Amino acid sequence: MLKQIPTHLITGFLGAGKTTLLQHWLAQKPAHERWAILVNEFGAIGLDAALLSSATEQSDTKTDDVFIQEVAGGCLCCAAGVPLTVALNRLLKRAQPDRFFIEPTGLGHPKAVLAVLTGPLYQGVLDVQQTVTLVDARLIKDSRYSEHPTFRQQLAIADRVVASKADQYQGTEFADLTAFLSANFPKLAAPMRSSAEQPVSLAQLLADGTDAPVVAHSAPALTIAQPRINLPLGPAPGDWVCLQNSSAGHYSIGWQFLPTDRFDPSALIALIDEVRPIRVKAWINTAVGSLQINRTLGAETETETESEAPGQSVNRLELILDRALDAAPLTTRLRACLLS
User: Fold this and answer.
1) Gene3D superfamilies, per this entry (predicted)?
2) pTM, two decimal places
3) How far is CA 254 from CA 98, 145, 194, 307, 320, in A?
4) How far is CA 285 from the centre of its chain?
5) Cβ distance 11 to 157 under 8 Å?
6) Is-contact 67 40, C-beta < 8 A?
7) What is the pLDDT of residues 132-152, one digit of tens each?
8) DSSP state of 244
9) Nearest-angstrom CA–CA distance, 84 and 86
10) 331 with 233: CB under 8 angstroms?
């Protein structure tokens, strides 16, 4: 019988580094534990679950002890929390986990997610512990980020704040974040630093706070519009799939390419640069292997990881934008990036 499973909510705005931190934690997973991870993406194509699965396969972590489920195409809590409870129940039954992680989309409604987790339905089943919010301090002075209602909601429910990508700070970013939290969320402790070389560990978070349940956070009544997800953009069988989503002034366009498609990375990156999305995730096949792209506008450092294992990528691309774009011309231009 499932009982008092330690459960952690990992929040953060677009590109804050939630999936990357989970990848580090997976590499540190105790061998005797079974972990379950529920990942929610704003984009309808979905890449995070594949990236997390790849991380377990490339580490010493036993992949049969890690269970990952993805809910793509909008917020988990929309439609009265039905997608969340369905996904939770399915994953709990399949994984029977010793520890549970939930990563909502950076554009979701974390108070509503936390209300479901701490509500009567999961009383005695989930032991909701530290809620961690990741913040890329390089963006804290950008009002589009710091004044966004979702960002503020993430901080309002946080038990700990992690200043992510700290190795990329070049000035007063950490001090700026500390001052912002002190002025706006005075009950929060000073943020913890996390970097690629020294990511904050789960053990640090648990030791720094407590391993006891948090007090249930009350969520205000929310009127949440169900995100609009377009069906595939007219592909013939065996052709590409293009899915779109829009909600709260943000738009996503994602493509699932054919497994045999290979791209010219220079041409693809040049096209992405021209479009200037606020968020890019990709894992595609190239002539020499595969390429992963993880980029956030405003925090210009990007991750482009090459592998020498052709055909091992999921061959997907996801763009999140602050404006609507016609997907059809973009699809045509993507085809021009294919290698013959």
Assistant:
1) P-loop containing nucleotide triphosphate hydrolases
2) 0.77
3) 34, 23, 29, 22, 9
4) 22
5) yes
6) no
7) 999 999 999 989 889 999 899
8) E
9) 6
10) yes
What's the pLDDT tens digit per position in 307-331?
Answer: 544 445 578 999 989 899 999 999 9
Q: In this structure, are residues 107 and 250 in contact, taking their beta carbons and an 8 Å threshold?
A: yes
What are the structure tokens assigned to 197, written together?
A: 């070389």
Of residues 20 and 194, more confidence is placed in 194
Residue with tokens 């991380």: 55
| Total Cβ atoms within 10 A of residue 66 | 22
Strand partners, 132: 10, 160
User: Which CA distances in Å does 184 have to 140, 171, 181, 220, 223?
Assistant: 12, 22, 5, 19, 25
Residue reference for tokens 């534990």: 33
Q: How many CA atoms lie within 13 A of 258 on its CB side?
A: 13
Largest pairwise CA distance in the chain: 58
Helical (H) or strand (E) element with 132: strand 132-136
Give the domain ranges of the chain.
5-208, 228-335
Which pLDDT belongs to residue 292?
84
The tens digit of pLDDT for each residue in 231-288 reads: 334 344 458 999 888 877 889 899 999 988 999 999 999 999 999 998 888 888 988 8
> Distance between CA 160 and CA 177 in Å, rounded?
13
